[in-house]
Amino acid sequence: MLKQLALALAGTVCFALTPASAQTKTVTLWHPFTLETDMIYGGIKSFNESQSEYKIDARIVPGPQIATELIKAIATGSVPDLVTLDNPVVASFSAQGTLTDLTDLVSKSTYIKPNVYFEGPWASGLWKSKIYAVPRDANTLALCYNADMFKAKGLDPNNPPKTWSELSAAAEKLKDPAKNVYGFGFSAVQGEEGVFQWLPFLHQAGGSVSKLNTPEAAEALKFWADMVKNGTASKDVINQRQYEVTNTFMAGNSAMVLCGPWELPRLQTDAKFDWKLALLPVKDGKNIKASALGGYDWVVPKGAQQVNGAFKFIEFMSNPKILNEGWATGRLAPRNDVVVQNPLWPQAYSIYREQLQSARARGPHPQWPDISKAIQTAMQEALTGTKPADQALAEAAKKIEPILAKTPL
Amino acid sequence: MKQPRFRRLGALPLAGIPHAVFATAFVLLYLFPIYWMFISGLKSTAEIFANPPTFVPRQPTLASFEYIFLRENVLRYLRNSLAIAIPVTVLTLLLGSMGAYAMSRLRGRLVDVALVLVLLLQVFPEALLATPMFIIFKSLGILNTFAAVILATASKTLSFALVILRPMFRQVPYELEEASFVDGCTPLQTFRLIVLPIMRVPLIVVGTLSFVQAYGQFVYAMTLMSQQELQPATVGIYSFVGAEYADWHRVMAFSSIFVLPILVLFLFLQRRIVAGLTAGALK
Amino acid sequence: MLATRTALLHVFLFVPIAYLLAFVGFPIVYNVIMSVQEVNLGNIADLVRPFVGLDNYREVMADASFRKVFINSLVFVGVNVVAQVSIGLGLAMFFAQRFPGASFLRGLLLASWMLPALVVGALWKWMFATEYGVANFVLRALGLIGSPVHWLSDPAVALTSVTIANIWFGMPFSMILIAAALTSVPLELYEAAALDGAGATARFRYITLPAIRPALLAIACLVTIYTMRAFDLIFAMTQGGPLDASNVLPLLSYQFSFQQFQFGVGSAIGTFAFVIVFGVALVYVRTLKKEGGE
């Protein structure tokens, strides 16, 4: 009793010492967005100006470090109020009970209605039918190609490859070893980014993560491995992160690459040639449209001091008006009621918007990092020629099987 | 009177010219990567990927540097880096000279244990140490202060300083200390007035190296301080390099800006350090 | 007077050691404890976690990548130690001769060690890029290679590439330390040897080397410890890939902890590295004693 009293007294004393906190509560936010044109900057500014109850105090945490920093914060019991997390990693946190359940808050929200969100992004925040995250943005992959090179090699720049066979034929034609030009570029880096880029091919071939020891899956991996083997794609793809793949495209070392919309601002200012976008090709005979789903989710770590303030900001940022601004840095809205009028890069916008319809989520699964690691290893083995694709994938399947037996996808 | 250490290359300065030419060529070649970093920062987007690469920028531009200066709060970053690195250096030298002196003078198992301990404590990757460090500083109530990062970083530089300084302190002849006792100095005075001045040069060397390590520290600053305004330049660079998009010429421009102060400081100090070294640390 | 001195020395020893034990000892104990517990995201904030004995260690030993990475670490550290100390010694002796600009040029070399490891990694990754990297361009222009080398994407080459970068990064530091050690060799010895007509090789063999052997050992030991925990540089260059070809223990431990969220296993790997360095440290102290210098 005495202790409680003392604590309460201490509380009031501190309160009195920091007058600002008497009215305005500070909501701490971690995010990785370094482009000052990102919607988060405008959002924070107008949120802080629009009301005086809460003030967002934002901190940039480097993208690859954000999960690491959140883990440290959880381990030490000093969590921020709000974090943007890469969506496949969210389930690892929610399944272990380290995030605040937002189900009730969402049910009372005016802006955030589960049914207006695209299925994939929304699913990434769910765990055991509870809502732990609200999608902030969505992205996916499309085929980006150098129209000037198409013309130079006698290809029709208005008729990009639509199937795998057209893709490899075009890539074959576009490659020019004397000039260090590869036909096709993608990221197969040992990391989540590599898996993100390969999964569309797996799905297009009719394969799935839960069945990697199938001919379909092997074909998808072999498609990539063969391109590396015959020099249509660079051997370096296994060490290139996505932005580095885009670098090779902008440098004119790759005629076509897999490319996300977040690269658009950079392509616009820095690519000195005519570049165009196309939907991802589909596999001949299968015609399964598929792409990868990426994007960031808002999460409130368990133990956050300002859950209500954090959610208020999530709501603010989910306002279609704000989400509209996302496209300025190539961020698509994760919901179907936001359509940007007169978008920048109109052709790209329609391509990505359409591609998003067939984008599939990774997971959600609490052990997605382990599943992803198994796939990464198989990719590296096949692409370096260490093991044939089917064997590499069979081994990956063996690692994934017990994980999925415990918790299915 | 300075003496040639190995071979006197003739009395005439001319005799050393071939050596000097070779040495210059070697150093230039060795530092080529740093040159490459600077000129890459000066290249345009088109030129950065030019094949064949240009060894002298055709159209040098400050655009990347401008970009970094406009976007990143470079001066604040650098000020924070110094606010961490300077106290770390002082703390390291203070504790390091004490410990190394003791380890060089005491005998027996105690010193062995201490030495093994010092070596061992350097092994764990910082990424794994950062979490428990956070717990310590949280209970001390000094999270989000430079003090936390300084104390954490100095633990790394201190081990290093102890290992480097210990054999150097051993070279101070005990006779000097005895003489000083005879003159009526207390042991503490002897340490301060006799031993430390003799060790001036090694201390400058270790101080410089500690400074550099502290300046390049990242993990502790990242984890122990959550306020943007306090973060040092390394965190800025990591945010930049780790982003979804990083352009090489801008990364290189940022890196150039970051290393320029230490390189300048180093160029300024290195003559003293190296001159001191060649003159013999203990004469 | 002697008693006061001994007391002062003990205080001098105690203060820095206590400091280190407080700020590094506790974190290490924390990690060692985690290595015998089952730790996941759900219980990482708890103090009491399920005790699993040596399960994490068993898991580590059974892991195929661990064996590979363990050998990588030994190769990486071994090559670094040999290269940094021998090149450093050669250069230190070269620069110890008097010629115009000797000390200035020697000091300049240290510039590579001044860069943060992440920047060094990014820089070398860029220079080692297959198509537009400057390394392949220069080697090709000199006619040393026919087709471009896949520095970072060929599993057979990646470890060599990160080793080259790390030697470049660390060697000047070893060199300066060796240079400092060389100044401690009494000049009279050289003068006497010169009078006896000893050649350069003999002087090196019988005077320089014995005189600086303890220092060389200390430096080799330091290089071992610093390369043992190399992290940023490899992280920036290859992230340990392809296929763990360039991975080392600290990075693997980080990957288990913060990418796979298997904190117990990550800590076990860290502890493993700790045990290895414990061995190195013991050898180091014993060798110092045998040298008779102690």
Automatic annotation (TrEMBL), chain A:
Family: Belongs to the bacterial solute-binding protein 1 family.
Signal peptide start-end: 1-22
Entry keyword Chaperone: no
PANTHER family for the chain: ABC TRANSPORTER SUBSTRATE-BINDING PROTEIN, ARABINOSE-BINDING PROTEIN-RELATED
Keywords: Periplasm, Signal
Protein name: ABC transporter substrate-binding protein
Subcellular location, principal: periplasm
Pfam families cross-referenced by the UniProt entry: SBP_bac_8
InterPro entries: Bact_solute-bd_prot1, SBP
Location within or outside the cell: Periplasm
From TrEMBL, chain B:
Spans traversing the lipid bilayer: 12-36, 82-101, 113-136, 142-165, 201-222, 248-269
Membrane topology of this protein: Multi-pass membrane protein
Alphabetic keyword roster: Cell membrane, Membrane, Transmembrane, Transmembrane helix, Transport
InterPro entries, per the entry: BP-dep_ABC_trans_perm, MetI-like, MetI-like_sf
PROSITE patterns with a match to the protein in the record: ABC_TM1
Subcellular location: Cell membrane
Top-level taxonomic group: Bacteria
Main localization of the protein described in the UniProt heading: membrane
Keyword rRNA-binding applies: no
Gene3D superfamilies the UniProt entry points to: MetI-like (1.10.3720.10)
Positions of the ABC transmembrane type-1 domain: 78-269
Stated family: Belongs to the binding-protein-dependent transport system permease family.
Protein name: Carbohydrate ABC transporter permease
Organism annotation: Alsobacter ponti
Automatic annotation (TrEMBL), chain C:
Membrane disposition: Multi-pass membrane protein
Record keywords: Cell membrane, Membrane, Transmembrane, Transmembrane helix, Transport
A Pfam family that the UniProt record links to this protein: BPD_transp_1
Cell compartment(s), UniProt: Cell membrane
Ranges where the ABC transmembrane type-1 domain occurs: 70-284
Membrane spanning residue stretches: 7-30, 69-96, 108-127, 156-182, 215-241, 261-285
Main subcellular location of this protein, as a coarse class: membrane
PROSITE patterns, per database record: ABC_TM1
InterPro entries per the UniProt record, alphabetical: MetI-like (IPR000515), MetI-like_sf (IPR035906)
Gene3D superfamilies (UniProt xref): MetI-like
Family per similarity comment: Belongs to the binding-protein-dependent transport system permease family.
Protein name in the entry: Sugar ABC transporter permease
Organism expressing this protein natively: Alsobacter ponti
